[in-house]
Structures are given as C-alpha cells and as structure tokens.
Amino acid sequence: MKSCILLSALILVSAGALTGCKTKVERVAADEQIDISGRWNDTDSQLVSQEMIADIAQRPWIEEYTAKNGKKPVVIVGTIRNLSSEHIETGTFVKDLERELINNGRVTFVANKTERGELREERKEQQTWSREETQKRLAAETGADYMLQGGIKTIIDSEGKRSVKFYQVDMEMVHLETNEKVWMGDKKIKKYVKKSSVKW
C-alpha cells in the first residue's frame, strides 16, 4: 500500500514537471520592445535605421543635389560591415535602412547588388519568352548617384553577471563617381545587462 502511494506521488510530480517544462508561445506586436539576452536585436536595428535615415534626410546634401541636377539623388545601400563581437544579422538591418529610405521619399532608391542579379536574369528571359510589347529593355537601369555604407562596432565591459554593452553604428553617403562623402552619421546604443542569479 505504501509503495502504491509513493508511486502515485512520483507520477503526479513527474506530470507536474512535464507540464512546467512545456514551451509557451505568445504572439506579440512586431514593434513591441522585448530584450531577453541584452544582445543586438530587432528593436536596435529599427531604432538605428529610423534615426539614421531621418538624419540623412534633414542634411543639406539632398537640396544641393536636387538644385544642381533638377532631380532627386539616386541611392543604393552598399555593405554594412559587422565589426562587433556579436553575430549581427546585417541583412535585416540593411532591409530596415532600405524601407526607411523608400518611405522617406526624398531620394530615389534602386535595388542592391544581390537583388539586381535576379532582376537581370528575369529581363534576359523576357527577351526570349515574353510577348514583345511586354518585354522590359536590357541595359535600361537607373544608375545610383550615391552609396550608403557603414559598420557596427561594440565595446563590452563585463564582470560576473553584469556587463555594459556599447554599440556604435557609423554610416556615410559617398558619391559613386567622385568618392566625395556628402554625409556622415553615427548612432550609439548603451545597455546595462544584469543576468539573473537564479537557475532553473
């Protein structure tokens, strides 16, 4: 009898443990700020891209170019180098920059190097397989006037379960023909991370 009671208790405890370990998933808004590890995340990417593009747009180089050439400058996003000690998905950051550039509307934006390959392949196939009146011309692309380049760096100071993470994103707008730099900007993010001492 005593062994049956003990067995029942073990089953109940095991069932409770299994229930407690069950993964819970909750849908949240895409723009909700959630920090779990303290590392670079989607909130940092969106915050930096929005502030960078806002700064680019209010500087005089756009008005100067438009007044001189009678059209908006054409911009392409180049390489954003990850020079930090963390794995940062720069592709997501580049897309955030592209979205902000397009939505800003003060510059004309063209496809980047990776996207152009697929588009050119499609145009080539159209020359063979599409009706003539629907074919898109080859070698009729809009060339960019400026390239946006940059990098992400980190400085980390840590001791025990505490750390301070300092991110600096440097970017610059460079004229593709003359290599003249018409804009330079930076955005800094500092985080204090304190890990819990409780282990489950």
Describe the structure.
Helix content is 39%, strand content 26%. Helix 4 links the parallel strand 1 (74-82) and strand 2 (108-109). It has a five-stranded mixed sheet with strand order 2-1-3-4-5, with helices on one face. It has helices at residues 2-21, 42-58, 61-69, 90-104, 113-129; strands at residues 74-82, 108-109, 146-159, 162-175, 181-194. The protein is an alpha/beta fold and 200 residues long. It has five helices and five strands, in the order H-H-H-E-H-E-H-E-E-E. Helix 2 (42-58) packs parallel to helix 4.
Core attributes:
5 helices; single chain; alpha/beta; 5-stranded mixed β-sheet; LpoB; signal; 200 residues
Strand content: 25-35%
Structural class: alpha/beta
Order the strands across the largest sheet as they lie in space: 2-1-3-4-5
Low-confidence stretches: none
Order of helices and strands: HHHEHEHEEE
Rg of Cα set: 26 Å
Number of helices: 5
Keywords: Signal
Protein name: Penicillin-binding protein activator LpoB
Organism: Pontiella agarivorans
InterPro entries: LpoB (IPR014094)
